[in-house]
Write a structure and sequence with these properties.
The protein has about 250 residues and is an alpha/beta fold. The protein starts with a strand and ends with a helix. This is DNA-binding response regulator.
Length: about 250
């Protein structure tokens, strides 16, 4: 470690090492734009580009990047297909226009360390997200998080509707309007979660880890754990799978 020039006993400030990036996107304009933004900065540089998943894999083997920025939809081998192979070589951050819930969920399941949707970040936010992913801190932009939460809520509502339909033929059933209200309360309201706890429970049910939830909600991982402990107590469950099943109304 270098010594401070005015005091040999004080270590000099060492800036973080420049991260070497691989940009994979089939759109040459997007590739060029990202490369222009991230090349020759003090903290990042682009060492390779690729137009599809196969090129990205070959470039990663050749250049050993610190982080791979990967689009979802590309001709040939798309980003989702290439993701599990690339994730074994370097941390991968999805960088795409796609924010469909199923795509976000699949990317995170297959090993993506982050998911950024174009239009939801600036240059400095992008660089911070890249460094977070490199250091093992997941980063998910709000649009991707909202897509997951909305899909979970639609799934829970659909399950409630199916239960309602199954009971409509019984002579002792109350009017459908009362049943609908009752079903909603039985699945969500009866657990008496706070707004934040409900948000975190939605993300748990989507399969996100504590780190990913912390990144999505802009809170610490310790705070996430505290929320989960309270959620488990209110739902009277001991595991994430049990809590998700109760929350989605399938247990």
């Amino acid at each position: 470690m270098r010594q401070h020039p005015n005091d040999p006993g004080i270590p000099a400030f060492q800036p973080p090492a420049r991260l070497r990036l691989l940009v994979a996107d089939d759109n040459p304009v997007v590739r060029a734009g990202l490369t222009a933004l991230l090349t020759d900065r003090a903290d990042t540089t682009v060492v390779a580009q690729a137009a599809d998943g196969r090129e990205a894999y070959e470039a990663a083997l050749r250049h050993h990047p610190d982080v791979i920025l990967l689009d979802v939809r590309m001709p040939g081998v798309d980003g989702i297909s290439a993701l599990p192979h690339l994730a074994r070589l370097a941390p991968v951050m999805m960088l795409t226009y796609s924010h469909e819930a199923e795509t976000v969920r699949e990317a995170l399941r297959l090993g993506a360390g982050g998911y950024l949707v174009h239009g939801e970040f600036g240059t400095e936010q992008l660089v911070r997200a890249v460094r977070d992913v490199h250091e093992g801190r997941p980063h998910v932009t709000p649009g991707a998080t909202r897509a997951l939460v909305d899909a979970l809520r639609e799934s829970a509502a659909a399950h409630a509707d199916s239960q309602l339909a199954a009971t409509e033929g019984q002579n002792t059933s109350p009017p459908p309007s009362q049943l609908q209200s009752s079903m909603g309360q039985s699945i969500r309201s009866r657990f008496r979660l706070s707004v934040r706890e409900a948000e975190i429970m939605d993300l748990i049910a989507s399969g996100m880890t504590n780190q990913q939830i912390a990144a999505a909600c802009f809170i610490s991982e310790k705070t996430v754990k505290n929320h989960i402990n309270r959620i488990f107590a209110k739902l009277q469950t001991a595991t994430r799978s049990q809590a998700a099943a109760k929350w989605l109304g399938v247990a």
